[in-house]
Amino acid sequence: MLSKSQARLFFIGGTCFFSAIFLGLTFHTLGQVDARQNLDLLTAEVARGKEIWDSNNCMGCHTILGEGAYYAPELTQVVKRRGKEWISIFLRDPQAMFPGKRRMVQYDFSDEQIGDVIAFLDWIGKIDTNGFPPEPDLAMAPSLVVQASAQTSAPPAYFQQVCIACHSVGGTGGSVGPALDGVGSRLTAPELDRWLADPPAVKPGTAMPNLNLPDATRAELVNWLSGLR
Amino acid sequence: MKFKSQRVAYLFFATSLLLFSLQIVYGFIMGFAHLGFDVLHDVIPFNVARTTHLNLLVVWLLSGFMGATYFIVPEEADRELYSEKLAVVQWAALVIVGVIAIIGFHLNYWEGRKFLEIPRPLDYLVVVDVLLFLFNVGMTAWNGKRFTTTGSVLLVGLVAAALLYLPGMITFESQVLDSYFRWWVVHLWVEGVWELIMGGILSFLLIKLTGVDREVIEKWLYVIVGFTFLSGILGTGHHYYYIGTPEYWLLVGGVFSALEPLAFLGMALYAVTMARRGGMSHPNRIALFWTVGCGIMSFVGAGFLGFAHTLPQVNLWTHGTIITAMHGHMAFWGAYAMLVLAIISYTMPLMTGRKLFTGWVPEWAFWTSNIGMLGMTGAFAVAGIAQVYMERKIGMDFLAVQEAIEVHFGGVLLAACLLTLGIAMFIWNFIQYGLPKEEAMAAEHLRHAA
Questions:
Q1: Which residues is A68 bridged to in the sheet?
Q2: Whose CA is closest to B362, among B434, B295, B285, B416?
């Protein structure tokens, strides 16, 4: 039967042995990790972004690399998912983007700070994470019936980066605002233009914020939306 | 209580229970926010509530461990504490650091690093505080008449925990390395050296409560903590799956964290077997309940529920979801919260000389709080599984999923009410015991003389 001194030897020996392996693997990992995290892309901007990320405890609600809290979205691939344009609009006034929904603290970041945060998140998204977060493997394809009602020409870049977060077309997109299928047959081009210029002025209390669109972008959007019949 | 200075443990236990109550309050704030009522958003936004909830947990457990150590080490060394005054100073320092940290969190003064949110200047104060503590108990052991395995394992655990706090104080520009070394603290604490502390305290309680021969209990203590490190050190790999570290961590982390439940199974078998061997005849039955319960629930929460999502094939989908909260609640409750409640239940009659361990209050405190925690874990599990399928597998929008699983937080809150009721009864019992008394010591001496 096992004696106490044998048990002690098992504890001390095992601990030393596995600590040594752990230190060895750590040493090896430190050699590998620079390439996997693209150290050459870790600019001063990215470092400042991390500083902002840490000092405001963003991990207290969000996760990155799957680490943090579970109250707000996973942000590892957020730049790929939302685009830089959308994130910078969102960060200026987080509550305007999802009115009446779960709230984020209004941090009043400067444009430069927003750029830093986005640079940090962009860098995070490029790390080789062994496949995390995974692509949904049970995702349903949008139905053909809905697709048929959509425009045939490709949507403007701005639409795909920003509008899509709240509105859907052809079954893809957000559900905060109404689906835009057929909006071109419900509203005329001047009506669409007036709406996009300042939604709260047209309909006080609307959930849609004034996005301060440049004239060219607004014209492009109106043109494309009018084609959704 | 054999030595007068052991009474200093009371200060730490009272602090523990106070902070635990506060932790529950912040838990409710978060539960309501998840349910859609973030009414305190402008004053206590979610990240403040969350950070306060986590750090209160860490501090109340540490305070409980310190109290336990101040009680156990004199007994194992068979002498008074090196300095009772120093222990009081150390307690005051701990409280001051804690209060500053908690207030700081509400003023956006923190580091956004999960579990290690205490800002850097305060980290240095923590180090000083822990050194004071280790010096005091270390000197007691050093000058002691004897030193036992139980005491040594406890002290080795405490020293190692202090050393492992240091990697968390290094600054990194890279999120990957930041995360890598953050887990040296967090993982190697709760799934490593804290288990030594847990083993030491459990062993002390089992020796006292079961009357089984010390040699037998301490032999198995070595085996269990041996398994802890055999699996737990390389088990750190389960935090290195997806943070930018090489792929071999999937294998290393998977294999060794799959072995981690063995250490907790050991703890459970250890507690149950020794209690049965002792015949469950100790008059302080409720302390034995908490001790055996700690062994069993730590296996359920830390061992079984940890295993449920630790394999990389599973973790790829569940990483960073409410599944983690499900495991976390039960694991900390079973392994560490119940341990502190066990040592409090055992020591209070000895420190105060009052035998308030019979009757329905302490017993209902045990059952109600445990059933409450099981209920919370169940509700978190349902919410987490639903989240994983909707958000990760089907690809639904985050907020849409959160609205769909909102209802389960109603379940979490209802179960949390039961837990709160149980803890309230425990605290009521604690208050009824009153303060430590010197007569309690005299009574003990008489008993030993007889």
A1: A63
A2: B285
B149-173 per-position pLDDT tens digit: 999 999 999 999 999 999 999 999 9
The Cα–Cα gap between B440 and A83 comes to 69
CATH for A57: 1.10.760.10
pLDDT tens digit string along B195-251?
A: 999 999 999 999 999 999 999 999 999 999 999 999 999 999 999 999 999 999 999
* Structural domains in chain A (count): 2
For residues A82 and A113, membership in a common domain is answered with yes
CA–CA dist A51, B113 (Å, integer): 11
DSSP at A141: P
Identify whether A23 is part of a domain.
no
* Closest approach of A57 to chain B, Cα-based (Å): 4
* Most B CBs within 10 Å, among A52, A55, A61, A71, to test the B interface: A71
* ipTM of the complex as predicted: 0.94
pLDDT at residue A145, as a whole number: 46
Tell me if chain A has a CB within 8 Å of the CB of B37: no
Query: Considering only CB atoms, which chain A residues are within 8 Å of B400?
Result: 175
- C-alpha to C-alpha distance for A228 and A183, rounded to whole angstroms: 6
Residues of A within 8 A of B150 (CB-CB) are none
Enumerate the residues of chain A whose CB falls inside 8 A of the CB of residue B219.
2-4, 7
Tell me the two tokens of residue B328. 């976390």
Contacts of B142 (CB under 8 A, 6+ apart): none
